[in-house]
Amino acid sequence: MANTKQYSIRERVLDDYLKKGWYSRQQLITYCNRALEKVGYLAISSRQTFFNDLAQIESQYKIVIEKLKKGRTCYYRYKDETFSIYNPKLSEEDIQCLDQALEVLNSFKGMPQFDWVAEFKARFETSIKADTNKMAVVAFQDTSHNTGMEHFTTLYDAIIGKTAIDITYKSFKVRNAKISSISPYLLKQHNNRWFLIGRTIGYNDIGVFPLDRIEEICESHKAYEESGIDFNDYFKDVIGVTIPKGQDVEKVEIWFSEEQLRYVETKPLHKSQEVIQRDKNGGIIQIDVIVNYELEQSILSFGEKAKVLSPTYLKDNIKHRIAENLKNY
Predict the structure, then answer these.
(1) Is the distance from CB of 178 to CB of 227 less than 8 angstroms?
(2) How confident is the model over 285-296, as a mean pLDDT?
């Protein structure tokens, strides 16, 4: 049977009464229809729908539904009177695994699409777990207070629904905001910041729009344009989210001090990274990437413990930025 919302409502009602005792087919159908009508769904009248529901419950949850005939009327109930679909018996290991999964999901707090996590976690702790004051053992970065996160759900829904949108966007480089019609494809996070990846309708280039620069979003009257892009492959040769036009993948070599080399070995700059030379003072790593702004920022973050060896233009860019920075001191 298709997993529709109507069936989920009927399943909940049937489970509620089958665990209580004997009820006739007509009684159970009546209870189901009351619940369906409350949320605006059409009532069921087919006997076959009722029998299909019972068969689905028995098959899915491996439970026996007993049948008792009195005259012309049949009554139904669970053979196991302690059984309920919504009250499964969990082992301590099951509860621990669920708790750990919820802790990970809780890292998404603040994103509107995941508002349900906090509510579900509270219900879980109230109904199953006694220890609600335990100390946290895993801490994630919290992006809930980042500017632009109020747009997350709208963008998420537009991507899933393949809906074109008009965004009012203000770049750091301009004074006035601009309205653009976008086909949204992906929400991507880098360096504790979220970005919308999409294409301006009528253009070929993929655009990157930081959520904190989006002022307003509304549905566009223009038609959504498919991307035809595998974004896992699209971003595989870059660090971050920007891909400069006309840039190809290059071999980048960077020297690191001994201490810093050990760090970047445990936390590679890029999945292509390999150590190609090492001595007592440090070593050289090589990565195959498209050179972009995020790569330069990453290199500069290592300060005096890193030095670009090649390509030459990247080395010159880093030298220039360091020289400009020194003018501030």
Answers:
(1) no
(2) 96
